[in-house]
Amino acid sequence: MPCCGAYEFITFAASNHHKMFLDILIAMLWSISPFGEAKLGIPYALLNDINIYLAFVLCFGANVLVFPVMTFFLDVVNRYFLKWYHYKKAAIFVGRRAKAGAGKNVQKYGFWGLMFFVLLPVPGTGVYAGTIAGYLFGMDRKKAFLANTIGIFISCVIVWVTTVVAIGGFK
């Protein structure tokens, strides 16, 4: 940064804070997105020089927020939209995928099966699928939330540690 005066310094500092805020926001949006969840949000944040601990906490927290939003959607919005043919067809497809992916584990092992399913940091096994699976199998809401949260936490730790080590270690 060329040092010219107070105005230039303040402008430079403000632009850096703006970029950092934007990077945090994008990381959190990836973390609540069904296209990546925190499995994508954490690496995005770390690769954009967000503090490693802040990245973990914010992306994990954003990913946990998916459960209550999805639960509301399944309880309220889903029932309304099921009246429409194309939505119903898509919902049945998504439900079958969630049931097929988590079904045997959730039916056989309940809480532990759902937690294990959610903690796998691979596509299609996150909190969206976990919430749908818990809903479809009639799992107690509090137990499903706890299983999803623990699973998300372990998945986030795996992704976080892997990414931190890959980009050069803990600072």
Can you characterise this structure?
- The protein is an all-alpha fold and 171 residues long.
- Helix content is 80%, strand content 0%.
- It contains eight helices and no strands.
- The chain has helices spanning 6-32, 38-47, 52-64, 66-81, 85-109, 111-119, 127-136, 141-166.
- Helix 1 (6-32) packs antiparallel against helix 2 and helix 5 (85-109) packs across helix 7.
- The mean pLDDT is 86.
How is this fold's topology laid out?
Elements: H1 6-32, H2 38-47, H3 52-64, H4 66-81, H5 85-109, H6 111-119, H7 127-136, H8 141-166
The best one-word shape is: globular
Oligomer: single chain
Q: What's the number of extended β-strand segments?
A: 0
Average pLDDT, rounded to a whole number, is: 86
First-residue to last-residue Cα separation:
23 Å
Largest sheet: none
Helix content: over 70%
Amount of beta strand: under 5%
Taking Cα atoms only, what radius of gyration do you get, to the nearest Å?
A: 19 Å
Could you list the spans in which at least 5 consecutive residues all have pLDDT below 50?
none
Helices and strands, in order, run as: HHHHHHHH
Number of helices: 8
Q: What structural category characterises the helix and strand content?
A: mainly alpha
